[in-house]
Design a protein that fits this description.
Chain A contains 21 helices and 31 strands. In chain A, strands 19-22-23-27-26-25-24 form a 7-stranded mixed β-sheet. In chain A, strands 4-7-10-11-12 form a 5-stranded mixed β-sheet. In chain A, α6 runs antiparallel to α9, α11 packs across α12 and α13 runs antiparallel to α16. Chain A is elongated and about 130 Å long. The N and C termini of chain A lie far apart (about 90 Å). Chain B is of the alpha+beta class. Chain B has 2 domains: about 80 residues; about 230 residues, BirA Bifunctional Protein, domain 2, CATH 3.30.930. Chain B is built from 12 helices and 10 strands. The chains are: A alpha+beta (about 675), B alpha+beta (about 325). Chains A and B meet through α7, α10, α12, α13 and β19 of A and α5, β1, β3, β5 and β6 of B.
């Protein structure tokens, strides 16, 4: 909110601009900008929502007078009244007092409306307002100066020259000052004449009854409206005005008196006319000043800083609070009507702190015995998984939780993604049900920027639709490997990247103490025959596989291959087994390799399953050393080399121990798979 | 006179043995110098009779000494050429070392862990909460009623009128106080969402919330905690300045300013020449918030603070644009 400094300076003595800016900033109304307009300093104030009383020149002058210890001058609003009383000229009926606690009106007759003088136009321009005519400008000027919204009606255009404050009828219409016809309902409060709405209460006036250069009589409205209703109306109609901004934050219930007088004086000065005495004031339940107890001891114990009682009292008094010492170190504080934000002891403490400043506040640490801190197990598990995936060569990505519904769908999301009611862009309009869409889109983006391979992982939540309307959040991990060409390793055949990924996932989880079981599966978006279920503790938690080409198409990833794993993390931390020591044998181990050929259809899982099931004494471990097909091996066969490690805990093994195993192995493989030893 | 001959033999031997490349080279040199038949030393010893009688014992000793010196040289050369035969040769040692294929942690994770670690060392527990929140926990219980302008401070993504993407990590305060009684000492890092997407805002970013509730907690404790924390985080002594402000769930409330960690307070482009960085909000827990969770504000007081992990990461690593953080360009990620 922009206000010219010299205008504030009319009401209290100010130091230089730098001091003004610093003092306001350090007391809660941050000066966010400073410029020179028409040769004067104009400052942009960041006034917090709780301080509507500061959204005007006089309110800021009041603050400044307290901050700099200077006198606050009164507003000049003495008016000359003559002729018939206001009540003889008009009437006001408030049919909805719950939405309009106060409606005060003044009438000026015989005005000649022209343009406002240059000094007023300058002030309005400095606050960012356009001049309209002398009367409208006067209401805006008072709005900026005193903060109370006013509205001027062309009284001759009010049917029966009277005001009715009521709820709108269903479907009732009004054309507001901005030229838009608006259809209303009983939730909207209107100012009406005897026939029709003439203003949207607290938001904007009507076009028909606005003051023009031809206006001769004016009815000036100074009202108090209920904030929530104003806010709802403003939101419902998409109409945010200087008036609604203030009304929805709360105005001073006593504000209409001075504001109307001040405005009437300005209009009389500019346009002539006569002001009717005895304004109409419908104010059935005058606001009762709030009284709050402030304990000095509480202030000291909350802040951890002693501010002398005399200092507290003088700050609050200067701010307009009434203080009555109660003799027990506390005060009964009367809150001025313009401080709608203050109703509790904590609010008063803040007032003292705000003005006193917090420079004297010491920096201390809380004393006492700390509860045990740290990360809960599931978070610690996530951190360790991150480290393992980094060690496995993957870099961590962090994506938005929102993603593109079209990509979600094309990637075969199993559930309908939850849409945002007010998304910023279609590409970010649903909550991801899987980490795949953002990761794959990122791979495509990196590819288009020239990256030839991408190894990324992410830990984050998937958001799953639920009956309740509130999506479930499933913590997940995902790894994506993309390469634009098959991997090559020195002197070796290309490594299928799916096995690379499978190994990374297995190794990362193994290091965390989880035993992973993979079983073949078929599931989009994975390519047929290249998908595995990932299970831990007998429960399927996710999938690993090579993505189907059409899944890559969905993300605009051209060429290459992508391999992807995603699994749920929920509960895994509880299954982690810490390392358990096995005693080390004092006797040497013996390694023996077995090479054999089997039909191509025989899988490693089958071979290994058979070998593990055999009664092989002293065999500690079985490893796959080589799996080969091609030159030297018949078309329909694969050649295997399996390494077995023999070791005994209580003796040195003899050649006989090892040799005796060979016929068992060959016999079993021959019988089960027709495999022949090479 | 004799000395010259000795030196001459020693020098020639040294030259030959150094250039010996194979075992046979070395054995050949050995034969020529120390061989029993017509070895150079043998001939030297034979010249003993030409030496004056009183010098002969010394001459003999010198020859023997030279002999063992040459034999040692032969042994060393043999060890050298035999080793060379077993070790691979011809490596260009200026070739780059092979670096293991390691990944990189996201800068947000790095900074988040640093922040967590500092607070954990001060006895804080790490807490989390849902990212999809209800309006009660995100707003109402944080003293931000419906139809109040304080809701406008944060533009919100809604799923239904009552279900939204949390705009702050503060609802974790409420969930923690609903579940536990004081003393409470937590930090809550996590994703938050604001309906805002421009040069300096991302619709999703990361915050850390802190909450301490106990008997006798004061605003001085808040200042001390943040001073210690920021000094540890930026590895330098920083000063914390509280500037009164407004947040619905704290009273008094303050913006936290920090001595600029780039210029140390003398003024630079990062701090807009003020010497201060605005780094987060904080305050004393509003009694109304205690009311929502059933904690007696007369018995307990507390402080809360919030800060943006993104902002800290950008400051720490000199990242010039928030957009980089969630773009996941591998050229960016691999810098961390």
């Amino acid at each position: 909110m922009k206000f010219p400094i010299p205008w504030i300076g009319q009401y209290t003595e100010l130091p230089g601009d730098d001091d003004v800016a610093r003092a306001f900033t350090l007391s809660g109304s941050e000066v966010e900008g400073r410029e020179t307009e028409e040769g004067e300093t104009v400052m942009e104030f960041g006034i917090t929502v709780n301080r509507p009383d500061c959204m005007n020149v006089y309110g800021l002058a009041r603050e400044a007078s307290v901050l700099f210890g200077k006198r606050l001058k009164p507003v000049e609003a003495a008016v000359l009244e003559s002729g018939p009383s206001t009540a003889q000229l008009t009437s006001v009926v408030v049919e909805a007092p719950e939405l309009c606690p106060r409606y005060r009106a003044r009438v000026i007759r015989g005005v000649k409306v022209g343009m406002s003088p240059a000094w007023m136009q300058k002030r309005l321009a400095q606050c960012g307002l356009r001049p309209i005519n002398a009367v409208v400008d006067a209401t805006n000027f008072v709005l900026m100066e005193l903060g109370h919204p006013l509205h001027a009606f062309d009284m001759d255009r009010l049917k029966e020259r009277r005001i009715v404050v009521r709820r709108a009828g269903p479907g009732e219409k009004i054309t507001t000052l901005d030229g838009v016809e608006r259809t209303l309902d009983p939730e909207r409060l209107v100012i009406a004449d005897s026939l029709r709405p003439v203003a949207l209460a607290g938001v904007m006036g009507g076009e028909d009854t606005g003051v023009t250069f031809g206006t001769g009589s004016i009815l000036l409205e100074g009202a108090v409206f209920e904030p929530v209703n104003i806010r709802r109306t403003s939101k419902a109609l998409g109409l945010h005005t200087d008036a609604s901004h203030r009304y929805e934050r709360g105005v001073d219930p006593e504000g209409p008196v001075a504001a109307l007088d001040r405005c009437a004086k300005l209009i009389l000065d500019m346009c002539g006319g006569t002001l009717a005495p005895d304004p109409v004031d419908v104010y059935p339940a005058p606001a009762v000043p709030k009284r709050v107890i402030l304990r000095h001891g509480r202030l000291v114990s909350l802040l951890g800083m002693d501010i002398a009682p005399e200092r507290c009292a003088s700050i609050l008094t200067a701010l307009g609070f009434g203080l009555e010492a109660r003799g027990d170190g506390s005060w009964a504080v009367t809150v001025p009507s313009f401080r709608v934000d203050v109703s509790r002891e904590a609010d008063l403490i803040e007032e003292v702190v705000r003005v006193n400043g917090l420079e004297g506040l010491r920096a201390e640490l809380p004393q006492g015995i700390d509860p045990v801190g740290g990360r809960p197990a599931e978070l610690e598990f996530e951190e360790r998984l991150r480290d393992q995936l980094v060690a496995a060569g993957c870099s961590e990505a962090i994506h938005m939780s929102m993603t593109d519904p079209a990509v979600e769908k094309a990637l075969g999301a199993c559930a309908q993604a939850v849409p945002l009611a007010n998304s910023l862009a279609p590409a970010n309009s649903v909550l991801r049900t899987s980490l795949l869409p953002p990761l794959l889109l990122t791979a495509a983006k990196n590819r288009s920027r020239g990256a030839r391979k991408v190894a990324l992982f992410e830990l984050g939540r998937a958001y799953l639709p639920a009956e309740s309307g509130r999506p479930g959040e499933d913590p997940r991990a995902a790894v994506l490997l993309y390469a634009d060409a098959p991997a090559k390793t020195w002197g070796a055949a290309p490594v299928p990247r799916l096995l690379d990924l499978k190994g990374k996932v297995e190794s990362a989880l193994d290091r965390l103490g989880l035993e992973v079981v993979f079983t073949a599966a078929e599931r989009f978006p994975f390519a047929s025959g290249l998908c595995l279920n990932l299970s831990v503790g007998g429960r399927r938690v996710g999938s690993v596989g090579t993505l189907a080409p059409r899944a890559l198409d969905a993300a605009g990833l051209k060429g290459g291959s992508a391999h992807y794993a995603e699994w749920s993390l929920g509960g895994l931390e509880a299954l982690c087994r810490p390392p358990s020591f096995t005693s080390l044998s004092r006797y040497p181990s013996v390694v023996r390799d077995f090479s054999f050929m089997a039909d191509k259809g025989v899988s490693w899982a089958a071979l290994r399953g058979k070998l593990v099931s055999l009664p092989l004494p002293n065999v500690k471990a079985i490893h796959l050393v080589d799996c080969y097909e091609g030159e030297g091996v018949p078309e329909d066969k694969r050649s295997w080399t399996v390494s077995m490690i023999f070791q005994s805990p209580d003796r040195t093994l003899t050649e006989e121990d090892v040799v005796s195993v060979a016929p068992v192995v060959t016999g079993a493989l021959q019988e089960a798979f027709g495999a022949v030893l090479r | 006179m004799h000395q010259e001959r000795f030196d001459d033999i020693r020098a020639r031997f040294a030259e030959e043995i150094a250039s010996a490349a194979s075992e046979s080279d070395v054995l050949d040199i050995k034969g020529r110098y120390t061989g029993k038949k017509r070895g150079i030393l043998q001939e030297l010893m034979a010249s003993l009779k030409e030496v004056a009688p009183e010098e002969r014992p010394a001459f003999g000793q010198a020859v023997n000494a030279l002999k063992s010196e040459l034999e040692q040289g032969v042994d060393e050369a043999l060890a050298r050429v035999r080793d060379a035969k077993r070790a691979p040769a011809g490596l260009d040692v200026t070739l780059p070392g092979l670096r293991p294929d390691l990944g990189h942690l996201h800068p947000i994770t790095r900074v988040r862990r640093e922040i967590e670690q500092i607070f954990i060392s001060m006895g804080y527990a790490v807490a989390t909460g849902p990212e999809v929140e209800d309006a009660y926990h995100n707003f109402e219980a944080l003293n931000t009623p419906a139809d109040h302008p304080s809701r406008d401070i944060q533009d919100t993504f809604y799923i239904t009128p009552d279900v939204l993407l949390r705009t702050q990590t503060s609802p974790v305060q409420i969930r923690t106080m609903e579940a536990r009684r004081p003393p409470i000492k937590i930090i809550a890092p996590g994703r938050v969402f604001r309906r805002d997407d421009d040069v300096s805002h991302s619709p999703m970013f990361f915050q850390v919330e802190g909450l301490v509730v106990d008997r006798g907690i004061t605003m001085a404790h808040l200042k001390g905690t943040l001073t210690h924390f920021y000094s540890a985080l930026f590895h330098r002594d920083v000063e914390v300045r509280f500037r009164p402000s407004f947040f619905p769930f704290t009273e008094p409330s303050a913006e936290t300013d920090l001595t600029c960690v780039i210029c140390g307070g003398s003024g630079c482009a990062v701090c807009k020449r003020t010497g201060w960085l605005e780094i987060g909000g904080c305050g004393m827990v509003d009694p109304a918030v205690f009311g929502f969770v059933g904690i007696d504000p007369e018995e307990y007081t507390g402080f809360a603070f919030g800060l943006g992990i993104d902002r800290i990461a950008m400051l720490k690593y000199g990242i010039d644009h928030i957009r980089h953080l969630y773009d996941n360009d591998v050229r960016f990620l691999e810098q961390f």
